[in-house]
């Protein structure tokens, strides 16, 4: 399905890929913990598609998505990271990739060769960038073709991670929620409002999402005051 020849890739500063530039850091260890806890939360069924989202803008969902994808790839899994934030994409900048073709190109029938929309990066990790901004993001993400794409990708790869738009500003993630096996909500300390998080969870449940848990982002643990990390970042009990 995909061209597996790996390109030389230049990482940029759009998102800090700590899992690559500092693999022994506290933050990388927290990403590994998040990965482990996601696996535990999905023990009832095999996790093949995972959506990462947030209630509002600026909570770090793309940072979590990209670093999780790297960690799963480092474990030897064949991973596809999909930038489904068609309105405000960042993944192509993070991995130093062209965004001339991507998810919108494929869903909008602007390319019929999937290899032109999916690009290899580090070992075991492929990226599908967002592609050019379409006039109808919600319609594309909610389409049957998106469902078929995810189904097809999981036949070839071990895990598809979808970096989805925030829930409250647009309906995109609600349309995606029932197309994936599990959803993780990123909540950033001192940014997210409790009411917004509650509304986001309600919207996901209304969309029949399988909410695996929440990443609490950008928290100081007292020993690393001010560090950008995850501080016991994942919990699977929504009531906490």
Per CATH, the architecture is: 3-Layer(aba) Sandwich
Measured distance between first and last alpha carbons: 42 Å
Q: What is the CATH superfamily?
A: P-loop containing nucleotide triphosphate hydrolases
Structural class: alpha/beta
Summarize the biggest pleated sheet. Answer: 8 strands, mixed
Number of strands: 8
Percentage of residues in helical conformation: 25-40%
Read across the widest sheet, the strand sequence of neighbours is 3-4-2-5-1-6-7-8
Instruction: Write down the overall mean pLDDT.
Output: 85
The portion of residues forming beta strands comes to 15-25%
Low-confidence stretches: 7-14, 223-240
Distinct helical segment count: 9
**CATH class descriptor name:** Alpha Beta
Give the tally of structural domains. Answer: 1
Oligomer: single chain
Enter the CATH topology name.
Rossmann fold
Q: What Rg, in angstroms, do the CA atoms define?
A: 16 Å
Q: Shape, please?
A: globular
- SSE pattern: HHEHEHHEEHHEHEHEE
